[in-house]
Amino acid sequence: xxxAVNRHEGWEQRLLAxxxxxxxxxxxxxxxxxxxxxxxxxxxLTGVDRWPEFAGYTTKRxxxxxxxxxxxxxxxxxxxxxxxxxxxxxxxxxGDILALQDDVGEKHLAVCLGHQxxxxxxxxxxxxxxxxxxxxxxVG
Length: 140
Hints:
Blueprint: H1 11-24, H2 34-46, H3 60-68, H4 74-82, E1 97-101, E2 107-112, E3 116-121, E4 124-129, E5 133-137
Helix pairs in contact: 1-2
């Protein structure tokens, strides 16, 4: 995805609808997980569908193998995927994608909603303060 892709008119409503849909659906790795949510956000904001490039993983190991093809770290793979270097979380806008690390050291993607972020985890959609994220990427 190129950083030159702009957000399409009406993205705010599409983002809200996407978050509401994510609340209602059960977590399924490779189908409805934090990466799939990030792909849906990109499509809702810019019209660019990146999911077909990555669809097919169904295990944590498969997800990590797919990630490793694009960078030696979670963040470097994100830089490649989002088409730009990560930014400081303080500069993230609604709809941008954030990275956070959980209490057991696993990294996840989340959607910036302002001062909160939405992160899809096994126990559902969590809303956390954006200060828990360690970097962000622009979307559109």
